[in-house]
């Protein structure tokens, strides 16, 4: 939690503090309620969640009267934790221990942190004693394979790659093949995220998935989403969700934004849990997402 607190930008704290200030005041008038809803909107919770949270706070305050600072904090914490949701399965569906490698496809728009997240996840799994194969199927972005290779070398994972411009599905196929041959525990496939046209993306990701499924089951499709892109990122996320069944979200760059509310917005939009969060560029800056720790960090 302390690490999370340290890593979330100071501005996220400002969000928590201004809500606490408004809610802990001795009088809460209509302007205050508008300010509370605006604060939630500005943190990218989305209109639906901002309204619901405000309504719930309003009802609780109406029923129990205004509260002191500690009471306001407890109330806000409860309502925000409920909004984030504690009933979703946030485990990465990997490593079923049934004698085959788990396959994780990592998808998302270029620049969101796909390759970095794939590398960090490999590191976590290797540190856990797993044999990991990385597939550099982002053959569109020239530097992506080199970048993944660096992550793989550092983590102690095998990297399967091919020449730039090669068929991503072929690389994905080879990576899974390698995983099976070497009896690996997990194969993580970094895909290309060109959002040129929806059909182009659909063709490419669809093909990658089909080709992988010739040899193994896809256990997890992780969508990488950049928290700093706010509502734009949300639109892009829904395009991916239309193309492939997303099973979890890795929300990156939470260290660089005041808009942590995107956690709630994206879960509501896709009906898929945020499972991992990126808290920096460093190798250890990937953490499992825990709603209560997250809200505590927001509230400072
Ligand atoms: P890709 O094109 O989606 O594969 O994106 P990259 O993995 O190359 O990442 C793009 C940039 O975002 C790089 O400079 C990364 O270091 C940076 N990045 C990725 N994740 C995080 C994060 O959680 N926090 C911060 N601050 N930067 C990140």
Structure characterization notes:
- The mean pLDDT is 90.
- An eight-stranded mixed β-sheet has the order 3-2-4-1-5-6-7-8, sandwiched between helices.
- With 300 residues, the protein is α/β, with parallel strands linked by helices.
- It is 51% helix and 14% strand.
- Helix 10 links the parallel strand 5 and strand 6.
- Helix 5 packs antiparallel against helix 12, helix 6 runs parallel beside helix 7 and helix 10 packs parallel to helix 11.
- The protein is elongated, with a radius of gyration of 21 Å.
- The protein binds guanosine-5'-diphosphate (GDP).
Brief summary:
The chain has helices at 2-7, 10-23, 30-42, 47-64, 69-84, 114-127, 144-155, 168-181, 198-212, 230-243, 262-270, 291-299; strands at 102-107, 132-137, 158-160, 186-191, 220-226, 248-252, 274-278, 286-288.
Write the layout of secondary structure elements.
Blueprint: H1 2-7, H2 10-23, H3 30-42, H4 47-64, H5 69-84, E1 102-107, H6 114-127, E2 132-137, H7 144-155, E3 158-160, H8 168-181, E4 186-191, H9 198-212, E5 220-226, H10 230-243, E6 248-252, H11 262-270, E7 274-278, E8 286-288, H12 291-299
Parallel strand pairs: 1-4, 1-5, 2-3, 2-4, 5-6, 6-7
Antiparallel strand pairs: 7-8
Helix pairs in contact: 2-3, 2-5, 3-4, 4-5, 5-12, 6-7, 8-9, 10-11
Bound molecules: guanosine-5'-diphosphate.
Subunit structure: Part of the signal recognition particle protein translocation system, which is composed of SRP and FtsY.
GO molecular function: GTP binding; GTPase activity; signal recognition particle binding
Domain SRP54-type proteins GTP-binding: 273-286
């Amino acid at each position: 939690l302390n690490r999370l607190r340290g890593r979330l930008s100071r501005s996220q704290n400002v969000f928590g503090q201004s809500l606490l200030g408004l809610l802990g005041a001795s009088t809460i008038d209509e302007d205050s309620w508008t300010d509370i809803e605006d604060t939630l909107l500005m943190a990218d919770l989305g209109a639906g969640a901002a309204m619901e949270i405000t309504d719930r706070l309003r009802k609780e305050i109406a029923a129990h009267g205004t509260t002191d600072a500690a009471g306001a904090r407890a109330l806000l914490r409860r309502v925000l934790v409920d909004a984030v949701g504690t009933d979703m399965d946030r485990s990465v569906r990997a490593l079923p221990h049934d004698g085959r490698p788990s396959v994780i496809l990592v998808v998302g728009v270029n620049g969101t942190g796909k390759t970095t997240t794939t590398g960090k996840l490999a590191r976590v799994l290797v540190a856990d004693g797993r044999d990991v194969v990385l597939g550099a199927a982002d053959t569109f972005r020239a530097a992506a394979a080199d970048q993944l290779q660096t992550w793989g070398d550092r983590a102690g994972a095998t990297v399967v790659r091919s020449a730039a411009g090669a068929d991503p599905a072929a690389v994905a196929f080879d990576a899974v093949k390698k995983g099976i041959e070497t009896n690996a525990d997990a194969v993580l496939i970094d895909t290309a995220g060109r959002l040129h046209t929806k059909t182009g993306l659909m063709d490419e990701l669809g093909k990658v998935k089909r080709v992988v499924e010739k040899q193994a089951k896809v256990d997890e499709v992780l969508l990488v989403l950049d928290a700093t892109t706010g509502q734009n990122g949300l639109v892009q996320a829904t395009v991916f969700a239309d193309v492939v069944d997303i099973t979890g979200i890795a929300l990156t760059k939470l260290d660089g934004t005041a808009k942590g509310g995107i956690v709630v917005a994206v879960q509501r939009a896709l009906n898929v849990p945020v499972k991992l969060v990126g808290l920096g560029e460093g190798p250890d800056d990937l953490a499992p997402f825990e709603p209560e720790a997250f809200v505590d960090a927001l509230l400072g």
